[in-house]
Amino acid sequence: MAKCHPPQNDVGSLILNHSSSPHHHHCRLWNSFSLRKLLATVSCGGAAISKPQKPKNSHHSNTQINKPSPPTNGSSSRAGSGKLADLLNLSSSSCSSERREKVEQNVEDVKKKEERLEELRMAVKLLHSEERENGAKFVRSFAKEDAEARSTLAMLGAIPPLVAMLDNDNDDDDQPLIQALYALLNLGIGNDLNKSAVVQARAVHKMLKKIESSNGCLNSAVSEAIVANFLALSALDSNKPIIGTSGAISYLVSVLEDTEKKASLQARQDSLRALYNLSITPSNIALILETNLIQYLVSMLGDMEMSERILSILSNVVSISEGRRAISNAPDVFPILIDALNWSDSPGCQEKACYVIMVMAHKSYSDRQNMIEAGVGSALLELTLLGSTLAQKRASRILECLRVDKGKQVSRSFVNNKTTAAVSAPICGSSSSTANVNKEEEDMMMSQEKKAVKQLVQLSLQNNMKRIVKRANLPQDFVPSEHLKSLTVSSTSKSLPF
């Protein structure tokens, strides 16, 4: 029997010989398949190859062998794992680049912070040298828009030398003083600790000492800077009593009442705001009442740039009895306040004026009488219809207070009339006649009240109609229809929010 020879290194030696025997045919066939499998394994990295199928016609000598099947899942997973490795390498390289960029950015930020800190240190160092004016300029610039720089400068000790600069005795050059004042002002922006530190360093007293030493000839720029500091420092609640007792209120009032127009408009507005801050503390109201501020504020009502702030101050002052007495003693105070109730284009002023009137009406009977005589009823009725929600509530409360007070007056007059009638009635007269007389008097009084209420309602509706016509840009001589007139005439007090 012929033996199967091992496969040769040369691939060409595996060519089949059709003239060989069947046994040699199968041996060569096996050798050919084995070599093909080996080559496929080497070329595909060791992947498995599917077995060849049996020939359909095995008796023919020229039977063809099936070709190797494509690579299986093992080779595809190997290729996929290679792509995944490439993606991981790419992501790791991108992550490393991002990390590198972050590290570089952090290093750059640290460098900038170090440079900034060195600049702040140099500015504070200049404050302790002969170039303190330049140091104040740097502090003013650094603290203007940088909240972190304000805290850092305060920790570096910038406040004490700046406060010491307020003792400047050089009247020929006010620039160092001005730079120090605005540097202190900027250090306190949004920083309560710095505001407290400035006051604790006796900056307020030094400012007032500078004012007194000037004998009324203080530079307007210096005065404006001082008032701005009072405004900023008075925003902190713990500073309000200190500033109030220091004597700053009288100076602020003098700036506000400046008749010679030496103070700028900005200084006067800042002074009014500072006085409002100080009036929040009850202990400062007594100090405010020692000045002529209340009368001046009442006389200035009508200036729309200042009216809402003025009414805010009056709302604080009216909280104590001395304040209410000072307001009621001001000339024409109730006609002025009632006029403010009609400012429909300023709801804030209406609400604050209504609050002042409400407190005074609730606390004082004489003030209620003065309000009624000044014509507060129609303004309140109109406010309950057209005012804001808060103004409507306050106006309704005032009307209720006035209505109850008026009812008490009616009951008192009824009792007095009844007693008088009983005493003056003839002895021979019957009791029924006396009762009829009293009833007629009571009906007459009630009818007068109804007439007064109808007149108020009609007046309010007419005023509303005028405003509607004005808003609609209709002619001023526009005459409402007869139907509308009949409605205004037939209106009753049932529609009032009593």
Describe this structure in words.
The protein is mainly α and about 500 residues long. Helices cover about 70% and strands about 0% of the residues. The chain contains 23 helices and no strands. It has helices at about 20-45, 75-125, 130-145, 145-155, 160-165, 175-185, 190-200, 205-215, 220-235, 240-245, 250-255, 265-280, 280-290, 295-300, 305-315, 320-330, 335-340, 345-365, 365-375, 375-385, 390-425, 430-470, 480-490. It is flat.
Could you write a compact summary of the structure shown?
By secondary structure, the protein is mainly α.
Form type: flat
Sketch the topology as an H/E string, one letter per element.
HHHHHHHHHHHHHHHHHHHHHHH
What is the rounded Rg?
49 Å
Count of alpha/pi helices: 23
Strand content: under 5%
How far apart are the first and last residues' alpha carbons, in Å?
132 Å
Q: Which structural class best describes the helix and strand composition? A: mainly alpha
Low-confidence stretches: 1-30, 44-77, 409-435, 483-498
Mean pLDDT, all residues: 76
The tally of strands reads 0
Share in helix = over 70%
**Main beta sheet, described?**
none
What's the SSE blueprint?
Elements: H1 22-43, H2 73-127, H3 132-145, H4 147-155, H5 159-164, H6 175-187, H7 192-200, H8 203-214, H9 220-233, H10 240-246, H11 248-256, H12 265-279, H13 282-289, H14 293-300, H15 307-317, H16 321-328, H17 333-340, H18 347-363, H19 365-373, H20 376-386, H21 389-424, H22 431-471, H23 482-490
Helix pairs in contact: 2-3, 3-4, 3-6, 6-9, 9-12, 11-12, 12-15, 14-15, 15-18, 17-18, 18-19, 18-21, 20-21, 20-22, 21-22
